[in-house]
Amino acid sequence: MMPLRLAHISFLGLLSAAIAVAACTRVPEIEDRLSPDMRSASYPPLLPVDQLVTPLPVPEEQSSDLEQEMAARTARLQARAEELRKAQN
To answer: Please, where are the H alpha helices in 1-89?
Structure first.
């Protein structure tokens, strides 16, 4: 059992090394498309996540809105059920 485990570890090590080497290779098809302006351009500024993501609604407001929506739907369904009962009689 021990040699098999060693073989797996060796294989994973070689696979990791191969992936690392492949990731570091130059891709001329991509790099040759960059204009000189793009090559010398600076990186865009990093922004805090708070500025990038819209805040979620407050749970109390969200639950209140949901409760009102469900109450209105309940009233519509009860009215529809009453109309169907009247139509059957």
So the answer is: 2-23, 28-31, 36-40, 49-52, 59-88
**Nearest in space to 63 (alpha carbons), one of 75, 74, 71, 55:** 71
What are the extents of the domains in the chain? 2-36+58-88
Q: Residue 39: name the closest of 29, 47, 31 by CA.
A: 31
Chain centroid to Cα 89, Å, comes to 53
Please give the pLDDT value at position 61: 83
What's the predicted TM-score (pTM) here? 0.38
- DSSP 8-state assignment for residue 53: S
Query: Nearest 5°: phi and psi at 61?
Result: -65, -45
The predicted structure's pLDDT at residue 89: 77
pLDDT of residue 86: 94
| pLDDT < 50 regions, the chain | 1
Q: Which residues contact 88 (CB under 8 A, 6 or more apart)?
A: none
